[in-house]
Protein backbone atom coordinates (compact mmCIF):
# COMPACT_ATOMS: atom_id res chain seq x y z
CA UNK A 1 0.00 0.00 0.00
CA UNK A 2 1.46 3.33 -1.05
CA UNK A 3 1.27 6.27 1.30
CA UNK A 4 -0.09 8.54 -1.42
CA UNK A 5 -2.93 6.06 -2.04
CA UNK A 6 -3.97 6.27 1.59
CA UNK A 7 -3.83 10.06 1.50
CA UNK A 8 -5.89 10.24 -1.69
CA UNK A 9 -8.35 7.69 -0.36
CA UNK A 10 -9.00 9.59 2.83
CA UNK A 11 -9.24 12.89 0.96
CA UNK A 12 -12.01 11.49 -1.24
CA UNK A 13 -13.73 9.68 1.61
CA UNK A 14 -13.45 12.53 4.12
CA UNK A 15 -16.95 13.98 3.52
CA UNK A 16 -18.43 10.52 4.19
CA UNK A 17 -16.31 10.15 7.30
CA UNK A 18 -17.26 13.62 8.57
CA UNK A 19 -21.00 13.00 8.17
CA UNK A 20 -20.80 9.61 9.87
CA UNK A 21 -18.69 11.02 12.69
CA UNK A 22 -20.99 13.95 13.35
CA UNK A 23 -24.34 12.28 12.83
CA UNK A 24 -23.72 8.65 13.72
CA UNK A 25 -20.71 8.01 15.95
CA UNK A 26 -20.99 11.11 18.13
CA UNK A 27 -24.76 10.72 18.62
CA UNK A 28 -24.31 7.06 19.58
CA UNK A 29 -21.53 8.03 21.99
CA UNK A 30 -23.84 10.68 23.40
CA UNK A 31 -26.57 8.09 23.95
CA UNK A 32 -24.11 5.87 25.81
CA UNK A 33 -23.07 8.81 28.00
CA UNK A 34 -26.62 9.95 28.70
CA UNK A 35 -27.65 6.41 29.59
CA UNK A 36 -25.67 6.92 32.82
CA UNK A 37 -27.29 10.28 33.55
CA UNK A 38 -30.27 10.99 35.69
CA UNK A 39 -33.51 12.75 34.95
CA UNK A 40 -35.55 15.13 37.03
CA UNK A 41 -39.02 16.19 36.02
CA UNK A 42 -37.72 19.06 33.93
CA UNK A 43 -34.19 18.31 32.87
CA UNK A 44 -31.52 15.68 32.48
CA UNK A 45 -28.60 15.82 34.87
CA UNK A 46 -25.07 14.58 34.17
CA UNK A 47 -24.17 11.76 36.53
CA UNK A 48 -22.54 8.39 36.55
CA UNK A 49 -25.26 6.13 37.74
CA UNK A 50 -26.27 2.62 36.82
CA UNK A 51 -29.81 3.37 37.94
CA UNK A 52 -31.28 3.34 34.43
CA UNK A 53 -29.77 -0.04 33.68
CA UNK A 54 -30.71 -1.42 37.09
CA UNK A 55 -34.29 -0.36 36.52
CA UNK A 56 -34.28 -1.73 32.99
CA UNK A 57 -32.93 -5.16 33.92
CA UNK A 58 -35.04 -5.51 37.05
CA UNK A 59 -38.30 -4.84 35.26
CA UNK A 60 -40.16 -7.86 33.87
CA UNK A 61 -41.59 -5.56 31.19
CA UNK A 62 -38.16 -5.26 29.62
CA UNK A 63 -37.79 -8.98 29.05
CA UNK A 64 -41.33 -9.26 27.77
CA UNK A 65 -40.85 -6.42 25.33
CA UNK A 66 -37.47 -7.64 24.09
CA UNK A 67 -38.96 -11.06 23.53
CA UNK A 68 -41.94 -9.54 21.67
CA UNK A 69 -39.50 -7.60 19.48
CA UNK A 70 -37.47 -10.70 18.73
CA UNK A 71 -40.66 -12.62 17.94
CA UNK A 72 -41.82 -9.97 15.46
CA UNK A 73 -38.37 -10.08 13.87
CA UNK A 74 -38.29 -13.88 13.56
CA UNK A 75 -41.81 -14.27 12.16
CA UNK A 76 -41.29 -11.41 9.71
CA UNK A 77 -37.93 -12.86 8.73
CA UNK A 78 -39.39 -16.30 7.97
CA UNK A 79 -42.24 -14.87 5.90
CA UNK A 80 -40.18 -12.33 3.97
CA UNK A 81 -37.54 -14.98 3.26
CA UNK A 82 -40.11 -17.43 1.91
CA UNK A 83 -41.88 -14.84 -0.24
CA UNK A 84 -38.74 -12.95 -1.22
CA UNK A 85 -36.85 -16.06 -2.24
CA UNK A 86 -39.76 -17.33 -4.33
CA UNK A 87 -40.18 -14.01 -6.11
CA UNK A 88 -36.43 -13.62 -6.71
CA UNK A 89 -36.22 -17.21 -7.98
CA UNK A 90 -39.09 -16.59 -10.37
CA UNK A 91 -37.54 -13.38 -11.69
CA UNK A 92 -34.03 -14.79 -12.03
CA UNK A 93 -34.75 -18.22 -13.47
CA UNK A 94 -38.19 -18.17 -15.07
CA UNK A 95 -38.28 -14.82 -16.82
CA UNK A 96 -36.31 -15.20 -20.01
CA UNK A 97 -36.23 -11.76 -21.58
CA UNK A 98 -33.96 -9.13 -20.06
CA UNK A 99 -36.48 -6.36 -20.61
CA UNK A 100 -39.25 -8.25 -18.81
CA UNK A 101 -36.86 -9.08 -16.00
CA UNK A 102 -35.92 -5.42 -15.50
CA UNK A 103 -39.54 -4.30 -15.71
CA UNK A 104 -40.80 -6.85 -13.17
CA UNK A 105 -37.85 -6.13 -10.88
CA UNK A 106 -38.80 -2.45 -10.95
CA UNK A 107 -42.41 -3.35 -10.18
CA UNK A 108 -41.14 -5.06 -7.02
CA UNK A 109 -38.81 -2.24 -5.94
CA UNK A 110 -40.78 0.93 -6.69
CA UNK A 111 -42.93 0.77 -3.51
CA UNK A 112 -39.69 1.07 -1.53
CA UNK A 113 -39.47 4.65 -2.79
CA UNK A 114 -42.93 5.65 -1.58
CA UNK A 115 -44.05 6.56 1.92
CA UNK A 116 -44.06 3.77 4.51
CA UNK A 117 -46.64 5.54 6.62
CA UNK A 118 -49.05 5.86 3.72
CA UNK A 119 -48.51 2.20 2.90
CA UNK A 120 -49.48 1.32 6.46
CA UNK A 121 -52.54 3.55 6.41
CA UNK A 122 -53.63 1.94 3.17
CA UNK A 123 -54.38 -1.31 5.02
CA UNK A 124 -57.19 0.31 7.03
CA UNK A 125 -59.92 0.04 4.39
CA UNK A 126 -58.92 -3.56 3.82
CA UNK A 127 -58.62 -4.85 7.38
CA UNK A 128 -61.07 -2.72 9.34
CA UNK A 129 -64.14 -4.11 11.09
CA UNK A 130 -66.30 -3.21 8.08
CA UNK A 131 -63.35 -3.48 5.72
CA UNK A 132 -63.01 -5.30 2.43
CA UNK A 133 -61.71 -8.52 4.00
CA UNK A 134 -64.59 -8.84 6.44
CA UNK A 135 -67.19 -7.78 3.86
CA UNK A 136 -65.89 -10.39 1.44
CA UNK A 137 -65.73 -13.20 3.99
CA UNK A 138 -69.22 -12.46 5.27
CA UNK A 139 -70.49 -12.18 1.71
CA UNK A 140 -69.05 -15.60 0.93
CA UNK A 141 -70.64 -16.99 4.05
CA UNK A 142 -67.31 -18.07 5.57
CA UNK A 143 -67.92 -16.11 8.77
CA UNK A 144 -70.99 -14.54 10.32
CA UNK A 145 -69.43 -11.95 12.59
CA UNK A 146 -66.67 -9.65 11.38
CA UNK A 147 -63.22 -10.78 12.52
CA UNK A 148 -61.88 -8.39 15.12
CA UNK A 149 -58.25 -9.44 14.94
CA UNK A 150 -57.57 -8.30 11.39
CA UNK A 151 -56.69 -4.71 12.24
CA UNK A 152 -54.93 -3.37 15.34
CA UNK A 153 -53.46 -6.74 16.25
CA UNK A 154 -50.20 -8.65 15.98
CA UNK A 155 -51.57 -10.02 12.76
CA UNK A 156 -51.77 -6.59 11.14
CA UNK A 157 -48.34 -5.65 12.53
CA UNK A 158 -46.72 -8.67 10.88
CA UNK A 159 -48.71 -8.13 7.70
CA UNK A 160 -47.44 -4.56 7.48
CA UNK A 161 -43.85 -5.65 8.16
CA UNK A 162 -44.04 -8.24 5.39
CA UNK A 163 -45.65 -5.68 3.09
CA UNK A 164 -42.95 -3.08 3.79
CA UNK A 165 -39.83 -5.22 3.97
CA UNK A 166 -40.11 -8.24 1.62
CA UNK A 167 -38.35 -6.06 -0.93
CA UNK A 168 -35.21 -6.10 1.21
CA UNK A 169 -35.08 -9.87 0.68
CA UNK A 170 -35.94 -9.81 -3.02
CA UNK A 171 -33.23 -7.37 -4.10
CA UNK A 172 -30.12 -9.02 -2.56
CA UNK A 173 -31.31 -12.57 -3.30
CA UNK A 174 -32.11 -11.65 -6.90
CA UNK A 175 -28.72 -9.98 -7.19
CA UNK A 176 -26.92 -13.12 -5.98
CA UNK A 177 -29.01 -15.41 -8.18
CA UNK A 178 -28.18 -13.41 -11.29
CA UNK A 179 -24.51 -14.12 -10.67
CA UNK A 180 -24.95 -17.88 -10.52
CA UNK A 181 -23.20 -19.41 -13.52
CA UNK A 182 -25.98 -20.90 -15.66
CA UNK A 183 -23.55 -23.62 -16.77
CA UNK A 184 -23.77 -25.11 -13.27
CA UNK A 185 -27.50 -25.57 -13.68
CA UNK A 186 -27.04 -27.06 -17.15
CA UNK A 187 -24.50 -29.45 -15.71
CA UNK A 188 -26.84 -30.49 -12.92
CA UNK A 189 -29.62 -31.08 -15.41
CA UNK A 190 -27.36 -33.06 -17.75
CA UNK A 191 -26.50 -35.27 -14.84
CA UNK A 192 -30.15 -36.02 -14.30
CA UNK A 193 -31.03 -33.68 -11.43
CA UNK A 194 -34.73 -32.82 -11.14
CA UNK A 195 -35.90 -29.21 -10.93
CA UNK A 196 -36.31 -29.60 -7.17
CA UNK A 197 -32.84 -31.09 -6.77
CA UNK A 198 -31.32 -28.24 -8.75
CA UNK A 199 -33.10 -25.79 -6.47
CA UNK A 200 -32.01 -27.42 -3.21
CA UNK A 201 -28.51 -28.54 -4.23
CA UNK A 202 -27.36 -25.73 -6.51
CA UNK A 203 -29.44 -22.58 -6.30
CA UNK A 204 -30.15 -22.36 -2.56
CA UNK A 205 -26.53 -22.92 -1.47
CA UNK A 206 -25.27 -20.40 -4.02
CA UNK A 207 -27.91 -17.84 -2.98
CA UNK A 208 -26.80 -17.88 0.65
CA UNK A 209 -24.93 -14.53 0.57
CA UNK A 210 -28.03 -12.77 -0.75
CA UNK A 211 -30.17 -14.49 1.86
CA UNK A 212 -27.76 -13.32 4.57
CA UNK A 213 -27.82 -9.70 3.40
CA UNK A 214 -31.61 -9.77 3.19
CA UNK A 215 -31.74 -11.28 6.66
CA UNK A 216 -29.55 -8.50 8.07
CA UNK A 217 -31.81 -5.87 6.52
CA UNK A 218 -35.09 -7.38 7.69
CA UNK A 219 -33.94 -8.19 11.22
CA UNK A 220 -32.50 -4.73 11.85
CA UNK A 221 -35.46 -2.91 10.31
CA UNK A 222 -37.98 -4.85 12.38
CA UNK A 223 -35.96 -4.70 15.59
CA UNK A 224 -35.47 -0.95 15.32
CA UNK A 225 -39.05 -0.21 14.34
CA UNK A 226 -41.45 1.70 16.54
CA UNK A 227 -43.93 3.28 14.20
CA UNK A 228 -45.28 0.16 12.48
CA UNK A 229 -45.97 -1.55 15.80
CA UNK A 230 -47.53 1.56 17.21
CA UNK A 231 -49.76 2.26 14.25
CA UNK A 232 -50.72 -1.24 13.14
CA UNK A 233 -51.40 -2.50 16.66
CA UNK A 234 -53.45 0.58 17.51
CA UNK A 235 -50.96 1.19 20.35
CA UNK A 236 -51.90 -2.16 21.90
CA UNK A 237 -48.64 -4.03 21.36
CA UNK A 238 -45.20 -3.04 22.50
CA UNK A 239 -41.69 -3.50 21.17
CA UNK A 240 -38.36 -2.04 22.19
CA UNK A 241 -38.66 0.87 19.76
CA UNK A 242 -41.94 1.90 21.36
CA UNK A 243 -40.41 1.62 24.81
CA UNK A 244 -37.74 4.08 23.69
CA UNK A 245 -40.15 6.44 21.94
CA UNK A 246 -42.49 6.45 24.96
CA UNK A 247 -39.62 7.45 27.22
CA UNK A 248 -38.67 10.16 24.74
CA UNK A 249 -42.22 11.48 24.72
CA UNK A 250 -42.00 11.72 28.53
CA UNK A 251 -38.60 13.46 28.21
CA UNK A 252 -36.99 10.57 30.09
CA UNK A 253 -33.89 10.72 27.91
CA UNK A 254 -31.53 8.80 30.25
CA UNK A 255 -33.93 5.90 30.49
CA UNK A 256 -34.55 6.01 26.72
CA UNK A 257 -30.78 6.01 26.20
CA UNK A 258 -30.21 2.97 28.41
CA UNK A 259 -32.85 1.01 26.50
CA UNK A 260 -31.27 2.22 23.25
CA UNK A 261 -27.86 0.97 24.31
CA UNK A 262 -29.24 -2.47 25.13
CA UNK A 263 -31.11 -2.57 21.82
CA UNK A 264 -28.01 -1.46 19.94
CA UNK A 265 -25.85 -4.14 21.56
CA UNK A 266 -28.48 -6.80 20.79
CA UNK A 267 -28.72 -5.75 17.13
CA UNK A 268 -24.95 -5.50 16.68
CA UNK A 269 -24.42 -8.94 18.23
CA UNK A 270 -26.93 -10.51 15.86
CA UNK A 271 -25.51 -8.69 12.82
CA UNK A 272 -21.96 -9.50 13.87
CA UNK A 273 -22.84 -13.18 14.01
CA UNK A 274 -24.51 -13.04 10.58
CA UNK A 275 -21.62 -11.10 9.00
CA UNK A 276 -19.32 -14.05 9.67
CA UNK A 277 -21.21 -15.90 6.96
CA UNK A 278 -20.99 -13.29 4.25
CA UNK A 279 -18.50 -10.85 2.75
CA UNK A 280 -20.74 -7.93 1.85
CA UNK A 281 -18.16 -6.08 -0.20
CA UNK A 282 -17.67 -9.04 -2.49
CA UNK A 283 -21.38 -9.54 -3.02
CA UNK A 284 -22.24 -6.14 -4.45
CA UNK B 1 -37.66 -22.32 -26.96
CA UNK B 2 -38.13 -25.22 -24.63
CA UNK B 3 -41.61 -25.57 -23.15
CA UNK B 4 -42.31 -24.02 -19.77
CA UNK B 5 -42.22 -26.43 -16.82
CA UNK B 6 -45.40 -26.70 -14.79
CA UNK B 7 -43.78 -24.87 -11.89
CA UNK B 8 -43.61 -21.79 -14.11
CA UNK B 9 -47.37 -21.34 -14.00
CA UNK B 10 -47.60 -21.85 -10.26
CA UNK B 11 -44.81 -19.31 -9.73
CA UNK B 12 -46.43 -16.85 -12.12
CA UNK B 13 -49.64 -17.07 -10.10
CA UNK B 14 -47.63 -16.53 -6.91
CA UNK B 15 -45.88 -13.52 -8.41
CA UNK B 16 -49.18 -11.96 -9.53
CA UNK B 17 -50.60 -12.44 -6.04
CA UNK B 18 -47.50 -10.78 -4.60
CA UNK B 19 -47.88 -7.78 -6.88
CA UNK B 20 -51.56 -7.48 -5.92
CA UNK B 21 -50.50 -7.64 -2.25
CA UNK B 22 -47.86 -4.98 -2.92
CA UNK B 23 -50.04 -2.51 -4.81
CA UNK B 24 -53.61 -3.46 -3.84
CA UNK B 25 -53.84 -1.37 -0.66
CA UNK B 26 -52.34 1.71 -2.35
CA UNK B 27 -54.78 1.44 -5.24
CA UNK B 28 -57.62 0.96 -2.76
CA UNK B 29 -56.91 4.23 -0.96
CA UNK B 30 -56.49 5.85 -4.37
CA UNK B 31 -60.07 4.89 -5.18
CA UNK B 32 -61.39 5.69 -1.70
CA UNK B 33 -59.93 9.19 -1.74
CA UNK B 34 -62.68 10.00 -4.26
CA UNK B 35 -65.37 9.22 -1.65
CA UNK B 36 -68.38 11.51 -1.52
CA UNK B 37 -68.53 14.09 1.32
CA UNK B 38 -70.46 11.65 3.51
CA UNK B 39 -68.24 8.69 2.62
CA UNK B 40 -66.34 6.64 5.17
CA UNK B 41 -62.98 4.94 5.42
CA UNK B 42 -63.94 1.87 3.45
CA UNK B 43 -66.30 0.67 0.74
CA UNK B 44 -69.07 1.14 -0.26
CA UNK B 45 -68.38 4.39 -2.06
CA UNK B 46 -70.85 7.00 -0.93
CA UNK B 47 -70.92 8.89 -4.19
CA UNK B 48 -67.88 9.99 -6.15
CA UNK B 49 -66.33 13.40 -5.63
CA UNK B 50 -63.11 15.32 -5.28
CA UNK B 51 -64.41 16.71 -2.00
CA UNK B 52 -61.52 15.38 0.10
CA UNK B 53 -58.90 16.78 -2.24
CA UNK B 54 -60.57 20.21 -2.01
CA UNK B 55 -60.71 19.71 1.72
CA UNK B 56 -56.95 19.24 1.65
CA UNK B 57 -56.38 22.48 -0.24
CA UNK B 58 -58.57 24.51 2.10
CA UNK B 59 -57.44 26.09 5.29
CA UNK B 60 -57.73 23.29 7.76
CA UNK B 61 -57.40 21.99 11.23
CA UNK B 62 -54.85 19.28 10.44
CA UNK B 63 -51.87 21.58 10.15
CA UNK B 64 -49.57 23.12 7.63
CA UNK B 65 -49.49 20.49 4.89
CA UNK B 66 -48.24 22.74 2.12
CA UNK B 67 -45.49 24.19 4.23
CA UNK B 68 -44.54 20.65 5.20
CA UNK B 69 -44.50 19.61 1.55
CA UNK B 70 -42.25 22.52 0.61
CA UNK B 71 -39.85 21.70 3.42
CA UNK B 72 -39.77 18.01 2.50
CA UNK B 73 -39.14 18.90 -1.12
CA UNK B 74 -36.29 21.27 -0.29
CA UNK B 75 -34.78 18.81 2.16
CA UNK B 76 -35.09 16.04 -0.43
CA UNK B 77 -33.11 18.10 -2.93
CA UNK B 78 -30.44 18.96 -0.36
CA UNK B 79 -30.07 15.34 0.69
CA UNK B 80 -30.04 14.22 -2.94
CA UNK B 81 -27.19 16.54 -3.91
CA UNK B 82 -25.15 15.73 -0.81
CA UNK B 83 -25.73 12.00 -1.25
CA UNK B 84 -24.62 12.07 -4.89
CA UNK B 85 -21.48 14.11 -4.26
CA UNK B 86 -20.38 12.26 -1.12
CA UNK B 87 -21.19 8.77 -2.46
CA UNK B 88 -19.39 9.29 -5.76
CA UNK B 89 -16.32 10.65 -3.98
CA UNK B 90 -16.32 7.81 -1.48
CA UNK B 91 -16.96 5.30 -4.27
CA UNK B 92 -13.87 6.59 -6.10
CA UNK B 93 -11.87 6.40 -2.86
CA UNK B 94 -12.85 2.80 -2.19
CA UNK B 95 -11.61 1.58 -5.57
CA UNK B 96 -8.18 1.25 -4.06
CA UNK B 97 -7.65 -0.21 -0.64
CA UNK B 98 -6.26 2.34 1.76
CA UNK B 99 -5.32 2.16 5.41
CA UNK B 100 -8.55 2.26 7.37
CA UNK B 101 -10.81 1.68 4.37
CA UNK B 102 -12.17 -1.50 5.94
CA UNK B 103 -13.14 0.31 9.13
CA UNK B 104 -14.82 3.09 7.19
CA UNK B 105 -16.75 0.51 5.18
CA UNK B 106 -18.05 -1.19 8.32
CA UNK B 107 -18.95 2.17 9.81
CA UNK B 108 -21.07 2.83 6.73
CA UNK B 109 -22.76 -0.55 7.09
CA UNK B 110 -23.35 0.24 10.76
CA UNK B 111 -25.10 3.40 9.64
CA UNK B 112 -27.54 1.19 7.79
CA UNK B 113 -28.25 -1.28 10.58
CA UNK B 114 -28.38 1.03 13.59
CA UNK B 115 -32.06 1.62 14.41
CA UNK B 116 -33.25 4.96 13.04
CA UNK B 117 -34.72 6.07 16.33
CA UNK B 118 -31.25 5.91 17.92
CA UNK B 119 -29.85 8.30 15.34
CA UNK B 120 -32.81 10.58 15.94
CA UNK B 121 -32.38 10.45 19.71
CA UNK B 122 -28.59 10.87 19.63
CA UNK B 123 -28.57 13.82 17.24
CA UNK B 124 -31.36 15.44 19.23
CA UNK B 125 -29.41 15.00 22.47
CA UNK B 126 -26.24 16.48 21.03
CA UNK B 127 -28.01 19.54 19.66
CA UNK B 128 -29.68 19.98 23.04
CA UNK B 129 -26.45 19.77 24.96
CA UNK B 130 -24.53 22.21 22.78
CA UNK B 131 -27.51 24.54 22.96
CA UNK B 132 -28.25 24.49 19.25
CA UNK B 133 -31.80 24.40 17.98
CA UNK B 134 -32.78 21.31 16.02
CA UNK B 135 -33.91 22.27 12.54
CA UNK B 136 -34.84 20.17 9.54
CA UNK B 137 -32.14 21.79 7.41
CA UNK B 138 -29.31 21.13 9.89
CA UNK B 139 -29.89 18.25 12.31
CA UNK B 140 -32.63 16.74 10.13
CA UNK B 141 -30.40 16.96 7.06
CA UNK B 142 -27.48 15.24 8.79
CA UNK B 143 -29.62 12.55 10.37
CA UNK B 144 -31.14 11.68 6.98
CA UNK B 145 -27.71 11.44 5.37
CA UNK B 146 -26.85 8.56 7.72
CA UNK B 147 -29.66 6.65 5.97
CA UNK B 148 -29.13 7.71 2.33
CA UNK B 149 -25.31 7.58 2.21
CA UNK B 150 -25.00 3.82 2.86
CA UNK B 151 -27.40 3.14 -0.01
CA UNK B 152 -25.50 5.55 -2.23
CA UNK B 153 -22.19 3.93 -1.36
CA UNK B 154 -23.52 0.39 -1.87
CA UNK B 155 -24.73 1.38 -5.34
CA UNK B 156 -21.32 2.88 -6.12
CA UNK B 157 -19.65 -0.32 -4.94
CA UNK B 158 -21.87 -2.37 -7.24
CA UNK B 159 -20.89 -0.06 -10.12
CA UNK B 160 -17.17 -0.01 -9.55
CA UNK B 161 -17.05 -3.79 -9.01
CA UNK B 162 -18.21 -4.10 -12.61
CA UNK B 163 -16.14 -1.21 -13.95
CA UNK B 164 -13.74 -2.05 -16.76
CA UNK B 165 -10.48 -0.36 -15.75
CA UNK B 166 -9.09 -0.58 -19.26
CA UNK B 167 -11.07 2.54 -20.23
CA UNK B 168 -9.19 4.51 -17.64
CA UNK B 169 -5.86 3.01 -18.59
CA UNK B 170 -6.52 3.91 -22.21
CA UNK B 171 -7.26 7.49 -21.22
CA UNK B 172 -4.10 7.66 -19.16
CA UNK B 173 -2.04 6.22 -21.98
CA UNK B 174 -3.35 8.98 -24.20
CA UNK B 175 -2.02 11.50 -21.73
CA UNK B 176 -5.16 12.42 -19.78
CA UNK B 177 -4.65 13.88 -16.32
CA UNK B 178 -6.31 12.07 -13.40
CA UNK B 179 -9.04 14.73 -13.28
CA UNK B 180 -9.61 14.54 -17.05
CA UNK B 181 -9.88 10.76 -16.77
CA UNK B 182 -12.55 11.05 -14.12
CA UNK B 183 -14.41 13.90 -15.78
CA UNK B 184 -14.43 12.53 -19.35
CA UNK B 185 -14.19 8.77 -18.88
CA UNK B 186 -15.30 7.57 -15.45
CA UNK B 187 -18.21 9.93 -14.78
CA UNK B 188 -19.93 9.41 -18.15
CA UNK B 189 -19.70 5.63 -17.70
CA UNK B 190 -21.16 5.66 -14.21
CA UNK B 191 -23.74 8.39 -15.01
CA UNK B 192 -26.79 6.05 -15.03
CA UNK B 193 -25.91 4.74 -11.58
CA UNK B 194 -25.37 8.27 -10.32
CA UNK B 195 -28.91 9.05 -11.48
CA UNK B 196 -29.99 6.00 -9.44
CA UNK B 197 -28.18 7.31 -6.36
CA UNK B 198 -29.90 10.67 -6.83
CA UNK B 199 -33.31 8.97 -6.99
CA UNK B 200 -32.58 7.04 -3.79
CA UNK B 201 -31.29 10.17 -2.08
CA UNK B 202 -34.36 12.20 -2.87
CA UNK B 203 -36.99 9.52 -2.29
CA UNK B 204 -35.53 8.14 0.93
CA UNK B 205 -35.31 11.65 2.32
CA UNK B 206 -38.77 12.64 1.12
CA UNK B 207 -40.33 9.65 2.91
CA UNK B 208 -38.03 9.47 5.92
CA UNK B 209 -39.77 9.49 9.23
CA UNK B 210 -37.88 7.98 12.17
CA UNK B 211 -34.60 9.83 11.68
CA UNK B 212 -36.39 13.15 11.30
CA UNK B 213 -38.70 12.66 14.27
CA UNK B 214 -36.50 14.28 16.92
CA UNK B 215 -34.31 16.28 14.57
CA UNK B 216 -36.74 18.35 12.50
CA UNK B 217 -37.54 20.94 15.16
CA UNK B 218 -40.73 22.95 15.25
CA UNK B 219 -41.34 22.87 11.50
CA UNK B 220 -42.54 19.43 10.42
CA UNK B 221 -41.62 17.61 7.25
CA UNK B 222 -44.42 15.96 5.31
CA UNK B 223 -44.07 12.42 6.76
CA UNK B 224 -44.13 13.90 10.28
CA UNK B 225 -47.23 15.87 9.38
CA UNK B 226 -48.89 12.75 8.00
CA UNK B 227 -47.91 10.83 11.11
CA UNK B 228 -49.55 13.50 13.22
CA UNK B 229 -52.75 12.93 11.27
CA UNK B 230 -52.68 9.15 11.77
CA UNK B 231 -53.42 9.39 15.47
CA UNK B 232 -56.93 10.24 14.41
CA UNK B 233 -57.87 8.59 11.12
CA UNK B 234 -61.59 9.11 10.78
CA UNK B 235 -62.07 10.80 7.43
CA UNK B 236 -60.92 9.99 3.90
CA UNK B 237 -58.97 13.26 3.82
CA UNK B 238 -55.87 11.32 4.85
CA UNK B 239 -56.42 8.98 1.90
CA UNK B 240 -56.51 12.02 -0.39
CA UNK B 241 -53.21 13.20 1.10
CA UNK B 242 -51.76 9.69 0.77
CA UNK B 243 -52.87 9.48 -2.84
CA UNK B 244 -51.34 12.86 -3.69
CA UNK B 245 -47.98 12.15 -2.08
CA UNK B 246 -47.83 8.67 -3.64
CA UNK B 247 -48.65 10.12 -7.06
CA UNK B 248 -45.87 12.66 -6.46
CA UNK B 249 -43.41 9.86 -5.57
CA UNK B 250 -44.36 7.95 -8.70
CA UNK B 251 -43.90 11.08 -10.81
CA UNK B 252 -40.41 11.53 -9.37
CA UNK B 253 -39.54 7.89 -10.07
CA UNK B 254 -40.87 8.18 -13.64
CA UNK B 255 -38.87 11.38 -14.19
CA UNK B 256 -35.71 9.60 -13.11
CA UNK B 257 -36.48 6.54 -15.24
CA UNK B 258 -37.07 8.85 -18.21
CA UNK B 259 -33.70 10.48 -17.55
CA UNK B 260 -32.06 7.06 -17.55
CA UNK B 261 -33.81 6.17 -20.76
CA UNK B 262 -32.62 9.37 -22.47
CA UNK B 263 -29.07 8.76 -21.23
CA UNK B 264 -29.20 5.24 -22.64
CA UNK B 265 -30.51 6.46 -25.99
CA UNK B 266 -27.84 9.11 -26.29
CA UNK B 267 -25.15 6.61 -25.45
CA UNK B 268 -26.49 4.13 -28.00
CA UNK B 269 -26.52 6.85 -30.63
CA UNK B 270 -22.94 7.82 -29.89
CA UNK B 271 -21.79 4.22 -29.92
CA UNK B 272 -23.72 3.52 -33.12
From TrEMBL, chain A:
Ranges where the ABC transmembrane type-1 domain occurs: 66-274
Localization, UniProt: Cell membrane
The protein's name: ABC transporter permease subunit
Family: Belongs to the binding-protein-dependent transport system permease family. CysTW subfamily.
Chloroplast in keyword set: no
Keyword Membrane: yes
A GO CC annotation given for this chain: plasma membrane
Protein's organism: Paracoccus litorisediminis
Keywords, alphabetical: Cell membrane, Membrane, Transmembrane, Transmembrane helix, Transport
Topology in membrane: Multi-pass membrane protein
Pfam families reported for this sequence: BPD_transp_1
SUPFAM superfamilies: MetI-like (SSF161098)
Transmembrane intervals: 12-37, 70-91, 103-124, 155-174, 253-278
GO biological process: transmembrane transport
Automatic annotation (TrEMBL), chain B:
One Pfam family per UniProt: BPD_transp_1
A single cellular component GO annotation: plasma membrane
Record keywords, A-Z: Cell membrane, Membrane, Transmembrane, Transmembrane helix, Transport
Domain ABC transmembrane type-1: 69-256
GO biological process: transmembrane transport
Gene3D superfamilies on file: MetI-like
Topology with respect to the bilayer: Multi-pass membrane protein
Entry-linked InterPro entries: Bact_Polyamine_Transport, MetI-like, MetI-like_sf
SUPFAM superfamilies linked: MetI-like (SSF161098)
Record-annotated membrane-spanning stretches: 7-34, 73-92, 104-127, 147-164, 185-206, 237-263
Subcellular location: Cell membrane
PANTHER family: PUTRESCINE TRANSPORT SYSTEM PERMEASE PROTEIN POTI (PTHR43848)
Family affiliation: Belongs to the binding-protein-dependent transport system permease family. CysTW subfamily.
Name assigned to this protein: ABC transporter permease subunit
Species, as recorded: Paracoccus litorisediminis
Amino acid sequence: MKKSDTLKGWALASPLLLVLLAFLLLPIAMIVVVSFWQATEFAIVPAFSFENYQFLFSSPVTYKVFWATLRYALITWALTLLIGFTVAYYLAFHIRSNAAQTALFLVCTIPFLTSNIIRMISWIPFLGRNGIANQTLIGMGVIEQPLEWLLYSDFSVILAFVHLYTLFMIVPIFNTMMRIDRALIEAARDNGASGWQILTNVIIPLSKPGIMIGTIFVLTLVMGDFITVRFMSGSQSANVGRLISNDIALLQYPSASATSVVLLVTVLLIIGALMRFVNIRKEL
Amino acid sequence: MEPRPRSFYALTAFFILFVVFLYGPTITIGILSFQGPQGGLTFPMNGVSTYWFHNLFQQQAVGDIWGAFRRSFALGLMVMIATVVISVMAGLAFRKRFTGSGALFYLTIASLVIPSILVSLGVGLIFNQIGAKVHWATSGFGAQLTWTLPFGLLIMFAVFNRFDKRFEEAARDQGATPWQTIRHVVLPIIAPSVVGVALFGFSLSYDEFARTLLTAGSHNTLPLEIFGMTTNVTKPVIFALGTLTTVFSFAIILAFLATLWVLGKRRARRAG
